[in-house]
## 1
Amino acid sequence: RSLWHRPPSRHPNRGCAAMPSPMEEKMKAMLALNARGGKEEKAVKESALVLSEGNPQAGTRGPEASWDMVGQTEMVPQGRRSRNAGMHTMEIYFPQFYFTQVDMEEFDAKPDRYGPTVIGKYTKGIGQVEARFPSDDEDPISFAMTVVHRLLERMEAKGINETGNYMPNGQPLSVWNAIGRIDIGTESIQDRSKSMKSYIMDIFERYANESNIEGVDQYNACYG
């Protein structure tokens, strides 16, 4: 049953509303915090801090942890301020072999194929100059593993790693341990019983014994 659909109250008095669930209380608290732009009022923050200090489940999260009144703590890094969200770096891999789209149009324009109607379809129509294809020892999985490996190496070399801003000791994590989510976009999934992301995880397990990374495969035309 969905958390967003609660059964009606069985109280004998029809005018009485059902008691809110702990999940609803938590969502209300989160929405109220977001409405304030992540800035808690002084009294609420002091109360949350006292409860957090007296709660055994709170651990040693420090003053940035808030007690949500339903038995769990919520980490609010730096008051929910922006964490330099955006595109930091990019890696692109192209296979070695290719054919020009002009040659492809000339080939497909032959009478025994599609005829002259394809002239301009591949070049002007879809805006391509070349079409590249893998060799016999490459596939979309090897493409993804190559770009992820090169991307992480560039991040390490150029110091593109801000995890130290959110660590208690100020020391950044290794780049191989600093990734929290990986999304794979592709038109050419290789195995419908195994995600491409699971192959990418082999790199992280090999270099840093890292296996706790979220992610999914996005299997759509014109997405990867």
Note: The helical segments are 22-35, 42-54, 101-108, 121-125, 140-158, 196-208.
## 2
Amino acid sequence: YLAILSPTLGILTDHVAETAADRYCHLASVLLGVPALAGAFASFVPQPGAVAAGGVLAAAAAEAAASRNLVRVWASPAATIARAVESSPRFYRTRYIHGMDLLNARRVQEAEVHFRTSLSLCPKFTNSHFGLTQALVNQRKVAEAIESMRAGTENDPDNFFGFLNLGMMLHQTSRHAEAVQSLDRAMELNPSDTDVRGALAAARKALALSGGRSGGGSSGYGGGSP
């Protein structure tokens, strides 16, 4: 009886889509499983009437208990992902998605843990670098955030937003030469974007005013989402 014996496909597959599809598997198993059990009892039990009815009622009771537990998993996408992480803790993608859910819920420190776990499982997963950057910025851990964003751009050298946000963070922490370099790369990737044009002009102006020197300190950048 699949709905009872395997209430979550995520245990077997480690994939978000299959975990989210649990409800369909469960409902299909209910619709097919109860009639199948009734048919089996009717075929193999000498006096099928009462026994089959008892078997079906027992299966329905077990099904009701299983459904009651699974309702918690199906309550929301966030609950489904949390179950996926619980079922398959070594799957990096669900760790990342759960981290984003926690970040949106302002549970920033918990989000950081899941992003770091995702990166320990798959160091080249760029999304986790960027998610970690956002969590660190929200905690005002600016130097760590910059290094996380830099690692993300190294893994994905054609990511326009990665270079744009890295350049803006470097500029706002007075590391103007590095900011210009990062924003130049962003300009190469998307020369028509007005944000990168303005950010690059500001970084070049700041670099010129500093006499070509780039500061290495933090100016208290406390921005929002990178």
Note: The radius of gyration is 26 Å.
## 3
Amino acid sequence: GPQGLGEFLNVMGMTNTFETKPRFNLHELVDPGYIGSKRQYPKNQIEMRKSDPGFGVFDVCEDEKCIVKAVMLPHAPNMKSIAYVVQEKSIVGNVDVKALTARGVLPGPIYKKIKKGETITLPNGDVINGADFLGAPKPGRKIAIVLDNKDSEGVVDLAYGADVMIHESSFEAGLHEAAERKGHCTSKMAGKTAREAGVKQLVLTHFSNRYALLNSAPGLPGVDLLVDEASEAFRSDNVVAARDFMSVPITRASSE
């Protein structure tokens, strides 16, 4: 999270009573223009590392399944927000069972070695390369989370091709000045960013409380107005308004 998160958690730890002290693995994303606290945190509570952006992009974390990167976006005066992009790694393609069966290799424990692309000596002495019996890797899924900002152009390159972009949509296009003043985006801006980033689906959230209805009524604008405006700017109908406990299925693209 942003610089200062470690200090916040440290204060929370000192002012709250926990039966068991929580431990954190914390990664503060450092804005080069920000001068923050240099306080040190107890090693048994917070493991922290700081990261400066390379070419404007933070490498937040990576494990065997996914990579998380981030960029900073303008929000309010002297305040930035962080947009995150989660990229799932590709997974191994399907085993060509038909081709293996033709070689006399039936399904069983040996398929685990084949999935790893290992070189295997068969009982008859033949040697096969497991990688030769695997389909093309299946591309990973990609999600962009873009909240609390007044200009999301800076996330376009990083989010390019995302399966889903979750983007704030605080106001309708006609209230652009109010959105700018409060450090937020309009539905039209969200749609434009989604279009430029070539994402497949746009999920709108962070609505002003003036949009209390799902569907507009005379004199009462609803969330449907924001969806319609975003769809027009996105040039796609694949736009939905987020709601509590909502799930958005993301189907993995088939390998070509």
Note: The radius of gyration is 24 Å.
